[in-house]
Structures are given as C-alpha cells and as structure tokens.
C-alpha cells in the first residue's frame, strides 16, 4: 500500500515536471532564442546608410515630355525646411502620433515590436506595424515598398545605424522634409503653403495636427478633396496629443474648436505641375516605390506630356468667359484631360481644385454610349435608325424620367443619343440585358461594384462613379476602332545610363468591332452638329461629342457637368462640378454639359495642333435605303430597289446586321384584294390597298374606251366606292383597278387588274 502511494507521488512529480518543461521552460528557451536571433539580425548585416539618399533632393529626378525635352520641376520641390523653421508643436504632433518613444529608443522600439507581434498573433495576420520615425525615413529613402521579413530586418538595421550617425533632431527634420502629403506636395513646408497658405512658423496647433494626420493616407485624408475626413483625423491627433501629455486640456479645446480654412494654393510656376505630380505617383506605383524614393532616385521619367496641348488647355480652363458662376458667385471646380488616341497616353491634365486622376464622380449621361448604345449595336439589338418609344414607363420597378419630363413618342436611336434622352437609354439597356450591357464597362477601364449591375447605371448612377481620365480612355476606344488602351501618364523610365527600368505595357484589346465604334462615332458627330453638344457645330473638322449632367436633390442645382469630345487623333473630357459638396459650390441649373464644358471643348479643339482627319469608315459599314412608310410605323425595312427617292430614307448599317425584311411594293405592284357587296343593281366595292401606291378605278367601255371613274391617292390601306351595274351582255362595260406610282423620272409605272364578276 505504501509502495503504491510512493509510485503515485513520483508519477505526479513526473507529470508536473513535464508540464513545467512544456509550458514554461520550452517557451522561455524559445523566447530567449528568438530575442537572441532578433538582436543578432539587428546588429549584423552589411547595409550602410547612404547620406546622399537622406539629403532629400527631388530635383535629382528628371522628367521629359513627349518630344524628349526635360520639363522643369516646380520650385517648391526643392523647398527644404531647416530644423529652426519647424515649430515645436508640429514636431510634437508627428512624434506623438507616429512614434511616441522617438526620443527614447535607438531606432527600433522593441516594446512596440513586441506589442505589435502579440496583436498580430491574436488577429491571425499582419494588422499592426511598429515602424519608428527612423525606420520610416529609411524605408522611404533606401528600400522598396515590398512587405517581406527581409526588407523589415534591413529597415531596422539601417534605422539603428542611422541613429548612431545623426541626432534625433536631424532625423526628425529629414523625415518631415521627405513626407508626401498628396496634391503633389513633399515636405511640411510645401504642404503648409499649399493647404493653408502659410509658412511653418505661422501654423497653429490645429493645422499642425491636420498635417500630422494626413501622412497615414495622403489620398484619404487630403484636406482639399476630403476635408471632413481630414478634420476628423485632426481631432484624433489632438486627442492623442492630450492623452500623451503633449498638450494641455486648454490647448486641446482651443485647437479642436479652431476653424481651419483650406487655401489650396496651386503652384503656378509650371502649367504642367499636376501632370508631373500624377506622373510621379503612377511611376512610383509601377516601380513599387514610394514617391519620396522615386524623387531622389535620379531616374529619368519619359512621359506623354505635350507642352502645346498643356498650355492650350490651361488657357482654355482659366478663361473666365467660358464659364458661369456657382451658387456662391465663385468659379466652379474645373478639370480637364486630353488623351492621345494612338498611344493612350495622357497629353495634358489641368484642374483648379483637388480633382485628381483618381477622383471619381457620378458620370451622368456620358455612360450612355458606353453601356447602352455600343453594346446594343455590338450584339445587333439596334441600328442607329431603330425606333424607340420614348414614353414614361417602368423597367422592373425602375422608373426614370427624361430631362424636364419631356417625352417624344416614337423617335430614332440616333435622335435619342443626340438629345441624351433617359427613357430610351434604359430601354436599349433592357434590350441587351443589364448583365451583358454592364460587362462592357470594366473592359473599358471603368470599375463597377456588384451593386452597379442595374438599370440606373445606364444613366450614370454608380456606387463610386468614374473619373475623367478613365472616361477619356473609354471614349478613345471609339476613335481607335473599338480597341481599348489603358491610359497612362508615363511612357517609360530609364536610369541615367540609359537602362530601361519600366515601359508602359501595351494593353490594347478589342472591346467593340470596328463597325460598332464607327456607328457610335457617326451618331456622336451628329450630336456635335445638332444635338446636346451643338455648340461645337461651328468647327470645320469632324468631331464626335457627348454631354452629361448630374442633377442634385435640389432641382435648382446640378452637381456635375461634362463634355467628352474626340477627333481622329485625340480625346478630351471637360468637367465642372462641386467637389466640396458645399451649397455655395453648387452649379446653377443652367450649367449643363452642353453649356460651359462644351464651350471649353470647342475652344480647346479649335486651337489644338493635333491632326484632325476624317474618321476612318470600316469596310463593314454600308449605307442602305429603308422604306419610308414602314419607318413611319416604327419599323426598319429595306426599301424596294424600284422605289422612287421620295419613298426611301438612306440609313447607315453594319453589314453584319442588315435588316432581314425587304419591301417589294414598287417592283411588284401587286393585285389588291377586292371585296364586292351586291345589292340589286348596285355594287359596293372595297379595295385593300398598299398605302405607298396610288390607285384608280377604270371603266373599260368597248365602244368609248377606258376612262377613270375613281382616283385614290396613296396613304390609305383601304378604299371603298359604289357603282351601278349596267346591262349590255357581251359588250357591257367592265371595271378594272390601276395600281401605279411615279418614278424619279416623272414616268407613271402601273399595272391594271380587272374586277371580275361584277
């Protein structure tokens, strides 16, 4: 019994020992090993801090235009702020938000690393980082943006070496000078001038907090485009500063209630300022670099910039005679882009507001050719001459309205597009099918959400909308004969030795057949002559155009107005709108796509030096006569080859989808159906007629010859008359019907059919 107790006691000790080893000693040893490995990795390695990269000089980057000429970077790219220029409250805002133990660690915050590692383990993924300001400086100047363990270790090693070579104040100064704040602004000095119109020493605490809040996501928190988000982020920064003791409660309350005014001082030292900004952003994305790294790389960026086009565009967009005022008496937000149809390259870009190539707005009626009419032509659902019933109706519960609630009854597709009618556009989408019609937009570079696959997209009602650069690229597809190309600011990137680092990929793909593209162009040329874009009608060269207007919830105002126009060589989009969403920025109802934006388009294209040849007519395009009478009934039927000119209407078709039906009235002059009602010696006679033809009743007398007793003009499908039957035996008069028309030479073409058994 005693031996059993001893065994049990030894067994318990053995189990306890195993538990201690498994749950305490082994994890402890692993932790010690991990810590040793971590510090070994941190303090070994051959990476060295490059002083030249730390001296952030964006002027090292060189950018060329389409002709290979170097473009001067704006002077602000070299505006470097010294430590004494940067106020303490701005330094505190960044340190408190980004790296609160900045003055305590040696480049790597080990406590923060452990905390982040534990949080990431809990979440099952990398949700939280632990980069210090020193690490961020290294990442943005020395390393790529890839997410890998090797890159993170290299970053940490270099950050430690950085702190051995520079003081904390020097590191913070370099960091604040290389940060990207969006809107093309690098460094706190330039950002303060752009957003607030102030020098650094003049900033108040609220403005310092807003600058600190922007860098997490310069696009999301840019105060020009997203003031409300930026303002909310500012309050978060102030709250963190108060919590960490960087500011007092009194300072917090005062800064929180301070109303920040965004000046948006655009640098006018170069008309291509924005173009250069977006070229750098696009290039950085393709090369997986930060804009800061790219600016100090020494690379040569070759762009599609056309200085002539850029200069003309700026003159047009800054001409006060071409625009009306907003509800608040201000110049509306304007933006425009020009794309080369052959290359897909962006030739020029201009904006007087925070509009960027990523700024999505509701595109309105500019989507109609892309998502309604072109898909319908492509699948043969319509011709330009197809007749649509433009009346108020519902489509599976969706009930759109036409502008000003005006409806036109039977109207051709061509006229529907020219006048930008809403009901017919939805009708055409319905013919194609919503899913099929909407599937073309992603192929044209316009992104859709799953919820956008509905009838409202026909009229430009989208979840997130589209931007003018993507709209221009989509429309240039028509000018290119149905071939889509991704738009791009950058052609290629080279080193100073001439080695090619990046070349814009040729993403050409066919979306529409050539005949579809030409039919759309043909209708949009008409739109520029006598449709919604008729302000272009005075131009002496072929130009296709489409307008778009987005109304607000208040019928007195609009939010967006567009003109999209293209010639054989270039496509341009002109936009006016209310980027801020504030009431003072609303567009009066008389600012529509057919107004100011179309005038801007006219002024640009009339000055543009680009080639303006006639649009190429594909072999599949045919012109055919259709029957005018059938067309009046809403049917597209090919005309009889014998039909006179006054009876036909010439229309344009794709040879792939010619109408199957052909009218034969004029070549056949068919015998009409004749119905006789006998009443004693009276006969009531009814002729079932072809409305295109003329009819006559002839009395054929053996002795006196033929004479016309009834004459019926064309236009009716039935004629009736009465005759009295005369006796006369073999020589009694006989009746006949003459079917005839007058040909183009004035000759009467006819056939005579006897009326038997009177």
Description:
The protein is α+β, with helices and mostly antiparallel strands. Among the domains are: 43 residues; 192 residues, Biosynthetic peptidoglycan transglycosylase-like (Penicillin binding protein transpeptidase fold, Orthogonal Bundle); 101 residues, DD-peptidase/beta-lactamase superfamily (Beta-lactamase, 3-Layer(aba) Sandwich); 43 residues, no CATH class; 87 residues, Immunoglobulins (Immunoglobulin-like, Sandwich). It has 24 helices and 24 strands. Strands 4, 5, 12, 13, 14 and 15 form a 6-stranded antiparallel β-sheet that branches. Helix 5 packs across helix 7, helix 9 crosses helix 10 and helix 14 packs antiparallel against helix 22. The chain is elongated. It starts with a helix and ends with a strand.
The number of helical segments is 24
The CATH topology name of the domain at 75-266 reads Penicillin binding protein transpeptidase fold
- Cα-based radius of gyration, to the nearest Å: 38 Å
Please state the average pLDDT score: 87
Shape: elongated
CATH class descriptor of the domain at 75-266: Mainly Alpha
Tell me the CATH superfamily of the domain at 75-266: Biosynthetic peptidoglycan transglycosylase-like
Instruction: Give the helix/strand class.
Output: alpha+beta
Number of strands: 24
Biggest sheet, in brief? 6 strands, antiparallel
Named at the architecture level, the CATH assignment of the domain at 75-266 is Orthogonal Bundle
Low-confidence stretches: 124-128
């Amino acid at each position: 019994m005693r031996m059993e107790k001893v065994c049990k006691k030894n067994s318990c000790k053995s189990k306890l020992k195993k538990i201690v080893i498994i749950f305490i000693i082994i994890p402890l040893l692993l932790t010690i090993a991990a810590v040793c490995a971590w510090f070994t990795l941190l303090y070994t390695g051959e990476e060295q801090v490059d002083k030249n990269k730390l001296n952030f000089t964006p002027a090292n980057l060189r950018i060329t235009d389409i002709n290979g000429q170097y473009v001067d970077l704006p002077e602000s790219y070299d505006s470097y702020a010294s430590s004494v220029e940067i106020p303490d409250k701005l330094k505190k805002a960044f340190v408190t938000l980004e790296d609160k133990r900045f003055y305590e660690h040696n480049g790597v915050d080990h406590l923060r690393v452990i905390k982040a590692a534990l949080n990431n383990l809990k979440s099952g993924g990398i949700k939280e980082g632990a980069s210090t300001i020193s690490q961020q400086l290294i990442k943005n100047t020395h390393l790529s943006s890839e997410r890998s363990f090797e890159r993170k270790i290299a970053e940490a090693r270099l950050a430690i070496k950085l702190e051995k070579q520079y003081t904390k104040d020097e590191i913070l100064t370099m960091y604040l000078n290389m940060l990207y704040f969006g809107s093309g602004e690098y460094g706190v000095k330039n950002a303060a001038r752009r957003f607030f119109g102030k020098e650094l020493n003049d900033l108040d605490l609220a403005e310092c907090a807003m600058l600190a809040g922007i860098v997490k996501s310069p696009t999301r928190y840019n105060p020009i485009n997203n003031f409300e988000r930026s303002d909310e982020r500012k309050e978060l920064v102030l709250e963190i500063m108060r919590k960490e003791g960087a500011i007092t409660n009194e300072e917090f309350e005062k800064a929180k209630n301070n109303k920040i005014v965004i000046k948006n001082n655009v640098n006018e030292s170069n008309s291509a300022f924005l173009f250069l900004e977006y070229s750098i952003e696009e290039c950085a994305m393709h090369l997986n670099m930060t804009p800061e790294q790219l600016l100090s790389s020494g690379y040569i960026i070759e762009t599609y910039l056309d200085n002539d086009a850029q200069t003309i565009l700026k003159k047009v967009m800054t001409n006060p005679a071409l625009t009306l005022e907003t509800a608040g008496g201000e110049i509306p937000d304007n933006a425009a882009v020009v794309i080369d149809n052959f290359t897909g390259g962006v030739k020029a870009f201009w904006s007087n507001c925070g509009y960027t190539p990523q700024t999505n707005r509701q595109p309105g009626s500019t989507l109609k050719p892309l998502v309604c009419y072109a898909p319908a032509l492509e699948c043969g659902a319509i011709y330009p001459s197809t007749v649509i019933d433009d009346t108020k109706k519902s489509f599976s519960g969706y009930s759109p309205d036409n502008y000003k609630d005006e409806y036109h009854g039977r109207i051709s597709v061509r006229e529907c597009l020219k006048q930008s009618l809403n009901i017919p556009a939805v009708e055409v989408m319905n013919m194609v099918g919503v899913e099929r019609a909407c599937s073309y937009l992603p192929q044209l570079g316009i992104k859709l959400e799953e919820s956008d696959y509905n009838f409202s997209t026909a009229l430009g009602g989208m979840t997130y909308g589209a931007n003018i650069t993507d709209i221009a690229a989509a429309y240039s597809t028509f000018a290119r004969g149905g071939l889509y190309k991704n738009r791009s600011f950058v052609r290629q990137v080279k080193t100073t030795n001439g080695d090619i680092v990046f070349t814009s990929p040729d993403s050409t793909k066919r979306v529409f057949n050539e005949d579809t593209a030409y039919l759309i162009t043909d209708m949009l040329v008409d739109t520029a002559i006598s449709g919604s874009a008729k302000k272009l009608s005075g131009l002496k060269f072929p130009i296709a155009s489409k307008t778009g207007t987005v109304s607000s919830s208040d019928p007195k105002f609009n939010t967006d107005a567009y003109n999209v126009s293209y010639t054989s060589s270039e496509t341009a989009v002109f936009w006016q709108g209310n980027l801020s969403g504030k009431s003072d920025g609303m567009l009066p109802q008389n600012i529509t796509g057919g107004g100011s934006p179309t005038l801007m388009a006219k002024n640009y294209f009339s000055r543009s030096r680009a080639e303006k040849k006639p649009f190429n007519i594909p072999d599949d395009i045919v012109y055919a006569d259709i029957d005018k009478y059938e067309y009046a009934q809403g049917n597209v039927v090919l005309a009889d080859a014998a039909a006179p000119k006054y009876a036909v209407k010439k229309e344009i078709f794709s040879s792939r989808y010619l109408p199957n039906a052909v009218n034969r009235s004029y070549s056949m002059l068919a015998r009409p159906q004749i119905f006789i009602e006998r009443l004693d010696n009276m006969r009531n006679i009814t002729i079932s007629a072809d409305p295109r033809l003329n009819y006559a009743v002839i009395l054929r007398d053996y002795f006196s010859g033929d004479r016309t007793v009834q004459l019926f003009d064309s236009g009716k499908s039935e004629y009736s008359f009465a005759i009295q039957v005369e006796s006369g035996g073999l020589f009694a008069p006989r009746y006949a019907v003459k079917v005839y028309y007058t040909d183009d030479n004035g000759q009467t073409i006819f056939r005579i059919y006897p009326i038997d058994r009177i």
